[in-house]
């Protein structure tokens, strides 16, 4: 599929880290990922992760994980604390580059492009694969400028009216426009926690992402704000792929189409969310969702 990601790098996949060989055939990757049960792979993936290992110095946090991110899906990642969910999520837009002890090997492609290729500029990559964090983190700027900042630095607009349009459209998509249209010059930090999180989602949307990563996006919100953000995530799926880490299994059940269960750095099972929560294949998944541990 021809997308703006072709601007990231030449469109040939290569292995990352110390693995010098060219990318392995998909069938080989599936074979080596045989320990994951269920349906980690899809027909027309937006992101393709194969044999991903992550180390913090000598300590291995992710072990040979292979999984696809589908188009227009919410993929939930669940598992006990410390199992590596956030570490894996952060590989998907190279946020782990900011951790000096962190080393990633394997292959991660966005629309067929290796995001770890040395020629990839992480700034446009992180626009294509946006991120929303646990705690809302608006810039210390006005509501308008929180949204306008990304389009300005990425040169997405020619003039003020185009910028105004992106700000309005992004806030509408994030379900925030009606609440803020009369106070666009107020600081982003003057909004409630739930509104701030929707502002951060609008900020990610404004730079035309393809995938949005969310790391426990509702854990700092009250139940009403959580419900609004969950509804928003469900709507956003029609335009984006969303990968969400959550501790709340009921949230995963409410908002996702597929769920991935991690345990001690291993990807144990991936499947349709309903199946994972009603009839999982793996004993470890069952033990977790029935509350036997975790
Ligand atoms: N910056 C870091 N330096 C060293 N080790 C780290 C770092 N970040 C995470 N780890 C370790 O990697 C492992 C996976 O951590 P990670 O935060 O990815 O798990 P998680 O499943 O997201 O946990 P939680 O649900 O508690 O947020 C843990 O053992 C953790 O201690």
Automatic annotation (TrEMBL):
Residues 47-289 form the ABC transporter domain. Gene3D superfamilies: P-loop containing nucleotide triphosphate hydrolases. SMART domains: AAA (SM00382). It comes from the Bacteria. CDD domains: ABC_PstB_phosphate_transporter (cd03260). One of its GO terms (cellular component) is membrane. InterPro entries: AAA+_ATPase (IPR003593), ABC_transporter-like_ATP-bd (IPR003439), ABC_transporter-like_CS (IPR017871), P-loop_NTPase (IPR027417), PstB-like (IPR005670). Keywords: ATP-binding, Nucleotide-binding, Phosphate transport, Transport. GO terms for biological process: phosphate ion transmembrane transport. One of its GO terms (molecular function) is ATP binding. This is Phosphate ABC transporter ATP-binding protein, PhoT family. It comes from Desulforhopalus singaporensis.
